[in-house]
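Archive entry: two folds, one per protein. Generate the first.
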Amino acid sequence: MRRAVTVVVAPWVRTRLRSAPGAALALALLVAVTACLAGVFPRAVDRYEDAGLARALREAGPVHTTITVSAPQPDFAAAPGERAAALRPDTLERQYAKLLDAAGAPLSVDRDQSAYGVGTRTKPPVPDPWIPRPSGLPAHVALVAQSGLAGHARVREGRLPRTSGPVTDSTPGVEAAVTAATARSLHIRTGSVIHVPGVGRPPLAVRITGILTPRDPAGAYWSTQPLLRTPSLVTVPPPAPDPVQYWLGALLLPPDAAPALLGTAGDPARYFNLAPDLGGLRAHDLDRLKSAVAALESGPGLQRARTVTDPRADVDTGLDDALAGFSGLRSGISSLVAVAAAGTGTVAAVVLLMAGGLAADRRRTELALLRARGVSLRGLAGRLLAETSVVAVPAGALGLGAALALVPEGRTGYAVAAALAVTAVACAALPVRAALAHRAVRVAGGPREDVATVRPSRRRTVAELTLLVLAAGAVEALRRRGATGGQLISVAPVLVGVIAALVLLRTYPFVLRRLGRPARRLRGAVAHLSLARASRTSVSAVLPLLALLTALTTAAFGGSVLSGVHTTRDRAALLAVGADARVDSDAPLPAGLATRVRDVPGVRGVAPVSIDYQAKPLDGQDSVALAAVDPDSYGRLATHTGLGAFDAGDLTRRHGELPALASPSVAEAYGTRRPFLVRLEDGSAVTVRITAVRERTPAVSGDFLVVDRAGLTRAAARPTALLLTGGQVDAGALRRAVHGSGTVLVRAEEQAGYADSPLQTGAEHVYTAAVAAGAGYALLALLLSLLRAAPERTALLARLRTMGLSRAESRRLLVLESLPLALLAGLGGALTGWATIRLLSPGIDLTTIAVATAETPAGEATLRPDAWSLTVPAALVLTLTVAVAATQAWWTAHRGSTRELRAGDGR
């Protein structure tokens, strides 16, 4: 019987890790950082989008976000007992509990701020003469019996209302409470009795037993119906000849007193206010939220609500409008953030692949020898996969844990999936690259493949053409569809980068061959040798070139977006203020204020302006804003701001007429050939002639005239505004100098106010971080590509040094050898970034992320190429390439050539 043979397997993984601990540590660090960034991104997006949704709903207010289910009073055909029972709190509470369950996910309801009750639809007038009557009309009141009054109010005077027995529609009187604001406006005190007209019965006597203070006045309990908290002075609409007003307030009854409303003329109705829980709503559920609200308004949710309450019940809410507004803002911002995410993700993936390729090239001889000794391709790939997994999987888990700790909010599933994708790419990069390179068994690592001499295979040509056609088709589709391009917008820089990389790699050998001919006639061997070395670049340079082009394109696009956002906000703030700072008043400003303002830190110039907003040309009915200015100071201000610059001489008085600067509409209405009279608000008049037309002017907007204030009367020429110029105006010191004499506006504060939405600021921060991470990965890709060729260059320099090459010539050789590919990447990246911006600019409106609304003084903001964003990243690529080449030459010269001169090194 044959004995079983035990095979002892060499500890491959442990041996390899011990032989190259530095490479393993570098791979672990790369995977951990990349997995952390990949895990942070979706959670950071979720965090700022959730905060933006909550902010948008808070700004909309409970009046527009609360879902109100209302049901009319029971049918008059029902028995009196049944009508009263339908309004009692126990019946309403059962219906309310079922409605809460019917709301359903993802619509989270804030049970503490939600309420139910009975209220009068009409607000009958009350005859009590002691309630104020501003225009002689009696006050109107709403009777409301809402649940949870004791938990949402503090008793300021008296006590909470209650009932002493069963209440019906014939009950002569009930108790009620009012808020302190209602009591103050309607002169109500504890013990006051208000008589509400009845129907077929005497008036209902409502005795006030308490005055209350809301615990949370801004909460949905009080703000869904603001009348419960604050009375209003109602103006009777036309045809009343004069404004006629009356007070409208709410009387808060106990829930048990609701049946008494059936005997009044108020048309009582049941209602159920379902306030959304702003902390429980998530932006990623936006589509489901809109569907749920739509179902409640006119779908299955409405049918369930009618089944629970009344067949005639109705659902009303403005939540769908608030969600639609947020959805529009979010979609405009998300498409821009997706561009940075796609670009950075592509560059990170390329860097991971390059790291695997570098490891495969470093171990090319070892792997070729293993294949020659009989190791199967599957076995080789499996060993390499185990080797990288031991390092990459713990590093990926560590990076994921760091991401979850750094950003506790947001969905975990997307973060885990992103970290797993990073780990999978890192694990597979080396085995796949080695399997592709060693499909055939060779004794050596294979023949050299130089980019300038090797003709691309048919397979590569077909693959490149296919990729090129797909990318070009996607870009053309994006250009045709514009802003509706969906996910195409996010991958546009990557697609353009792929096209540019393929085109540049195809033209690179031709350029090198064209440069080689004149280099042969140069004296010395450095130029010719450097071009020869550059032409021997491996054909696998497509990955670093793609990484650089994608990163440079994303950086150029991102920099242009951020620059456009800043420019749009600055422009909007400038148009809103008209200067770097402004002091405005309805009355003439104090005489010494201009002098005090000049001493404020940061102020360089002061332009006093007298503004009359009711100036009437030709004694007509139409008004224009007339700004009386000092031509010299105001001219400098207009030139500084770029708002309608003019020459001070244009406003110099001639022949008794005041030259005027006018807006196009005013110039068209009153002409520029003849003078005309302008009547000022104080009764004085001046004769002006329009001598110049400008679209804008700093002092006022809309229809305007600008004249020399020296031509006005002394009273009309007194300044009502001061327009200040200065780079860093101290807002606090300016307000102290003004000391309440006028309203202070500062351009920097206005600009900061346009970016107060969490959706804007969060997206801007994530966008900036993504672009910065992409730039970092691009530099890492460049370093990996240079590190890949470092051993061969070191050996070459060692040999050339023994043949008499000087240190200066060594530096020039490496620099000139590295420059062609670096120039290709830098210039190609700048050109690709410019092309991408020009391609996407028609479909991108930066107003959304800049100021969150299109209704701004700056108007629509389009994407334009930013020169700094195009040139600085490309210049950094060239600088880093030259620095690395020079450093390598210096290091090789000081290290010596003995260690490099070994038999079999280099080729």
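Generate the second and append.
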Amino acid sequence: MRLRIPLPTLMAGVVAGCATAATLLPVPALAAPGPSARPSTAAPAAGIGAATGAATAVPQPLGAFLTADPAESVAPAVAPAAAPLPPALLGQAVLGQPAGTTVQTAPAPGRPQAPAAAARHASGEAGALKAAAAGAGTAAAAQTCTPADFGSRSGSDLVSFLESSTTDCVNTLFNVTGADAGRIFKEPQMLTVAKAYQGLAATYAGNNSAGILQLVLFLRAGYYVQSNNAGAVGPYDAALTAASKAGLDAFFAGRHWTDVTDDNGAVLAEVLVLTDSANLQGSYLGVYKQVLNGYDASYNAFPKMLKAVNSVLSAPLWRGNWNTDFVRAVSADPSIGTALGSFAINHKDLLGTANAYLDVNAGNDLGRMAGDGPAVEAAVKGQVKAVLDASRITGPTGPLYVHTAYQANAFDPGQCSYYGTCDLPAKLTAAVLPAQLVCDNRTIQTEALSPADLAAVCASLRGEDTFFHNLVKDGGPVNPYGKDLTLAVFANQADYLTYSWAIFGNSTNNGGQTVMDPTDPNNRAVCVMYQKSWNDGFTANVWNLNHEYTHYLDGIYDMKGNFSTEISVPDIWWIEGVAEYESYAYRGTTDTQAMAEAAKHTYKLSTVFQNTYDNSDTVRTYPWGYLAVRYMVEKHPADVQAMLGRFRTGDYPGGYAVYNGIGTGYDADFDAWLDACAGGACYAAGPTALFDQSVSGPTVTLTDRSVQTGPGRITGWHWTFGDGTSSDQRNPSHGYAAAGTYTVALTVTDDTGRTASTPASVTVTTGTGTTTPPACTDQRTDALGQNCSRAGRTATAGNLDYLYVYLPAGTSTLKVTTSGGTGTAYLYYNADTWASPNAFTASSTNPGTAQSITVTNPTAGYRYVSLYAATDFSGVTVSTQF
């Protein structure tokens, strides 16, 4: 299975690697492929889901909550996944989270480590760390955050260290493995922290002033890591279960856990997940009902309380169904099912809003619960039917219908006639993919493609067959199955997200997916795609059409075995590079991003040869994969054929040896070739759309610099600005009504009618009603990004709030500003280490919180920023512009 996704993406079965040649990335908490191990303290209820085999897959405890990347990117990327997900894991993967949030459901591999994150104090988040300051202007000492810092401590020393750590730091523990996992999370360590948690829970004041959140996160991380590293950590027994329950009981016995505030919500959300991590779901049905029944529209003003409500829906009320104790408790008192059904029906007004995930998740859990045995089925099936009857397959209620119907159909299939969900994939396909064209061995199913568009897509795929075979010079199929293919094309991303997973079994946090196992006679290859809202140069605007089809062809004719076998060696440079190369070369268009990267000389060929999904980000995967494949195909075709000859027999180590044995032998020639490529030698014949942008306030000024290669001249320009407007001027200016990041696309046409399109992101920092750039999307809250902001920064007098930013090569100016909030926060910048009043190369020390630093011609790499609390400050926003 191959995916086209923005990196890093954070979900089960998907790796998002971030690495650079010159610098090391601070360790993030990213999701990555990991073993599917059953939780050690729970067993699936006998017979649950037996009809569909769902009992064989048990969802893992949830990992860390993370900041998600935007669901759509100008430069999508690819990552591996296993076969189509079984209902248990697919159901967990598609549970909704608040906008900009995702949850880790698989352990991340090790990552290189940057300077340890500095400790800081933030209300409701980081605990009560007080830095020892010798006097005014003295910098707070940075607290390190390494596995050894936790694994070397025990008893009260461990508890104190946790309480003084940041939540970001504790979240990195979700990723430890091996010996580190054993040292940090062995049961005596967990028992110590559980006892400390019980003590703080008894006096919980509705916020994190005592550092209780860090203890909860440590316990959650322990259960999570142990479930994935049971051999290294060792077993957890009844003693830990009892200690965790004692702490949870103390917490829920207090009066502040029901406070409707963000301070409480931040803690409550993690505590509710802990009830699931500890497999104590059956003990807290009353708590879950109280949370669900307590929700009303007033919660919408408190995002962290919404997260707490969703924690019930996305953790215990989903995963508890595999715990016999939970099923037994629900059988004895199925009123939790009534609460779910009432929630779904009573809050349908959420559908179509940013908080729709709450209503959809309620239906999702209700449908799943119907499969928890005869007693539960009898009690809740009427609720399931009521939700389905109150929802239409299409329109705003579509997501609620699909989630409820899928889970009921998967886990309570005996009632499918009553629910009206028998053969659900066919029912959904008929509703949302009504048009079909059989194109040789390909069946194209579509939501909105016209007959002419369908014919054009078919013609494009037919032509690509010939192009591919001429390129790779194969001798025919190397796998026995998978000769027939379904291509499903949704009209837009929203419909793809709503329906694709329930029809085809694919995860949908991506820009499209190819699912195939040509070694399985029962598997039909599927490419799932959607049309983009802007012109990307693909036929009928079907995003990644030719890239994904290349993956299919490569899997049939070049790569013997299934996808897991294919990626057993570092061959991503070929797998992704050949898909990119064919996509551009076959369409006769220029890969403008690759041309820009070629001029930078970021990677050596020998480095790209070692690409894996763990070590390669979007840029290294795509444009550099394209460049490596193009160079090898054009300059060393015999090596390519030797490699493919091995791959076609299933000898992946032998194929790897072909190019790995070259070592650095081609590096110098590749480097020289990059200069020629960037200079125009690799441009496609005809027009290539290129443009520069300049932003001033809400206005972007666009300057065409498109080129024509060979005969002809460019005669037409068409711009779309990403906000529904367009222009046919050559060099337009455009003002945006709101600050944000928009996709601008330029399509140029030459005097023979040939066209070329190029998109780019444009970020404006001002617009109607706002002067703040969009929120940074990195999962680490101390990470800044390009043209984005971090709000709510807080520290007490004498302390520092540390942040960092990665600058790509070619950055001409970095501007960092602070605004809003109260108090006095000085701004410091350092190019080499954590910035402070004693270590800075630029500073702004105006009274108050309005500060600004501009750095010209910075070099690429990690750069460091801090806010020093001359007095207590809170609510400050830090913004970047570069």
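Annotation attached to the second fold: The longest strand covers residues 740-750. The two ends are 37 Å apart (CA to CA).
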